[in-house]
């Protein structure tokens, strides 16, 4: 099976997961896949929007349900959390709509918003609209820059047999480093 066949078959699932976990980079790459004809434009936008929406709803729910848990309280001590709350208090609707576009606030913001009195239904409605706009912007950017990205990195299928294992190893190393760093943070604070 070629890399293009794998991307055609699993690209939307990867886009859904990547939009929620990683964010813009994966969604722009989804736009490149649209440019290559591997997935459909509306499906890419829907997968990216849904992935982002679901992840933000989960983080909001964690902030709401576990606001007194030590993990959430530890997150509340971070400068990004305080910045998020400060901006939220001045312009709540605009902040809920725009936090996903602000570097460094994407993950902490829905947790922070979850600790406030904002009704869950209002967050859900604004989050759904914002996720659609965000996904449309970044899939479209990937599509528009697809030709340039393709020229810069070469044709994916020409290096697919090497690229896929390398990406898998890089992902595993990155995850291992992330969890090791987190474990050290937790043991250092306890």
- Tally of extended strands? 0
How many individual domains? 2
**Beta-sheet strand percentage?**
under 5%
Largest sheet: none
The average pLDDT score comes to 84
Query: Which residues form runs of ≥5 with pLDDT under 50?
Result: none
Can you characterise this structure?
- The chain has helices spanning 3-21, 24-35, 41-65, 70-76, 79-90, 92-98, 108-114, 120-144, 146-153, 156-189.
- The chain has 190 residues and is mostly helical.
- It has 2 domains: 3-146, no CATH class; 155-190.
- Helix 3 (41-65) packs antiparallel against helix 8 and helix 6 runs parallel beside helix 8.
- It is globular.
- The mean pLDDT is 84.
- Keywords: Membrane, Transmembrane, Transmembrane helix.
- The chain crosses the membrane at residues 12-33, 39-62, 92-113, 125-146, 158-179.
- One of its GO terms (cellular component) is plasma membrane.
Short description:
This protein is mostly helical. It has ten helices and no strands. α2 packs across α8, α5 packs across α7 and α6 runs parallel beside α8.
What would the keywords be for this entry?
190 residues, mainly alpha, 2 domains
């Amino acid at each position: 099976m070629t890399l293009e066949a794998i991307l055609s078959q699993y690209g939307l699932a990867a886009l859904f997961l990547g939009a929620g976990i990683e964010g813009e980079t994966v969604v722009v790459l989804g736009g490149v896949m649209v440019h290559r004809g591997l997935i459909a434009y509306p499906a890419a936008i829907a997968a990216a929007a849904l992935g982002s929406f679901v992840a933000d709803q989960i983080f909001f729910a964690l902030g709401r349900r576990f606001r007194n848990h030590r993990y959430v309280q530890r997150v509340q001590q971070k400068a990004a959390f305080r910045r998020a709350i400060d901006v939220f208090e001045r312009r709540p609707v605009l902040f809920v709509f725009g936090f996903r576009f602000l570097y460094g606030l994407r993950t902490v913001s829905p947790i922070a918003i979850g600790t406030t009195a904002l009704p869950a239904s209002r967050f859900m409605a604004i989050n759904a609209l914002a996720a659609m706009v965000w996904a449309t912007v970044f899939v479209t950017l990937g599509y528009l820059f697809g030709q340039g990205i393709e020229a810069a990195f070469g044709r994916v299928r020409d290096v697919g047999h090497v690229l896929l294992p390398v990406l898998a190893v890089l992902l595993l190393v990155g995850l291992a480093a992330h969890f090791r760093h987190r474990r050290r943070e937790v043991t250092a604070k306890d």
